[in-house]
Each structure stands twice: as structure tokens, then as C-alpha cells.
Design brief:
With 120 residues, this protein is of the alpha+beta class. The protein is built from four helices and three strands. Helix 1 runs antiparallel to helix 3 and helix 3 packs antiparallel against helix 4. The longest helix has 25 residues. The radius of gyration is 21 Å and the shape is rod-shaped. The two termini are 24 Å apart.
Length: 120
């Protein structure tokens, strides 16, 4: 799956953030882990009694569409920075001031993307 497919999948999914909740399964000795949307609609359920099942539930809730989209924005910002690095290595027709502007754009995109991710 490429980053554009991942972005489309995240945009089509129930928006994040998602919440994690564990509860006793009625009529059973086992527990179930619920992943809920902000309005408390069920997104997914994980069944089991061991630590790994709870860890899976927490991970699914953490990897919600808002987080994935923020991570992809970081990837895009890093690509912009890589383009600047490539232009810096091979000046081939790129003026000094164009390279400075590319650097500023890349740094700004990285800062914005990281701020969004850290706010989640």
C-alpha cells in the first residue's frame, strides 16, 4: 500500500481520535476491548483475556485516522525537505535564493506537520 492509498483509507474511515475501553464479556470469563469513536460508536472489538489482546486494542485506538493523516503529512514534509537537499547537491539551474526559499518551505512544512502530530 502506498502513502496515497493509506491516506484515502484513513480519510474513508471513522474519524479519530478513537477511544480504548475494556469490559467483561457477558456470559464469559474473557474480556473484550472496544475501540470507540469520539461519539462512542463502536469502531472495532478485540476479544481475549491476555495482555496481548489489551495491547492490540490500545494500538488500534492509537493508530486512528487522525494520527495516520498527521504521520503522512510528516512524510510529505520530509519529501519536500529531500527535494531541497537534492536541489542543494545539484545546483543545476536553481538559484541560491530559490534554494533558500525551498529550505524555508520545507522547514515550515516539517514544523507544522510535527505540531499537528504532537497535538494528537
Amino acid at each position: 500500500m502506498n502513502t496515497e492509498q493509506l491516506k484515502q483509507a484513513a480519510m474513508a474511515a471513522t474519524p479519530g481520535p478513537w477511544l480504548y475501553e475494556t469490559s467483561k464479556r457477558p456470559g464469559s470469563a474473557g474480556n473484550y476491548q472496544l475501540i470507540l469513536s469520539e461519539d462512542e460508536n463502536s469502531v472495532a472489538e478485540c476479544y481475549g483475556t491476555d495482555h496481548e489482546d489489551a495491547a492490540n486494542g490500545r494500538y488500534i485506538a492509537a493508530a486512528n485516522p487522525a494520527v495516520i493523516l498527521a504521520l503522512l503529512e510528516c512524510v510529505d514534509a520530509l519529501r519536500l525537505y529531500k527535494n531541497w537537499c537534492d536541489a542543494e547537491k545539484d545546483h543545476g539551474g536553481t538559484s541560491f535564493w530559490d534554494r533558500v526559499e525551498m529550505c524555508r518551505e520545507a522547514e515550515s512544512a516539517i514544523d507544522v506537520a510535527l505540531q499537528k502530530l504532537e497535538a494528537l
